[in-house]
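Treating backbone geometry as a discrete language has practical consequences that deserve illustration. Part of our work consisted of pairing the sequence of a single chain with a tokenised description of its backbone. What the numbers capture is local backbone geometry rather than side-chain detail. For completeness, the protein is quoted in full, as a sequence line and a line of structure tokens:
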Amino acid sequence: MSRTLVCILAETRSHEITWSSFKQFVLDPLDADLMLCISTPKDYDYQNPFWKFAKFRCTVEEYSDWGEAFDQAQKTELGQRLHPPPPQLEDPAKNWGAVAWWN
């Protein structure tokens, strides 16, 4: 018998607002298991229903600059960082979200 696995690849913030609808309209109709692939800051709420319901959990530390995570992923997957940086990161004023700058 096969089962459905729903993976949240993001955050579980605002669970007070989103959990009941997510469970009702996604997990229950699919009779799905839940997997979390999330960052967990030091003040993460481990009592939230997403965390409690999840059958599988993959976590990573919360970065203040997600550029460090991209650098680490490149080194792990490619054995090196890519050079030059993408054009989108050449100007610090055009940073993307929590990517502060190309280190």
In short: The mean pLDDT is 83. The radius of gyration is 17 Å. Residues 4 and 30 are 7 Å apart (CA to CA). The helical segments are 15-30, 49-53, 67-78.
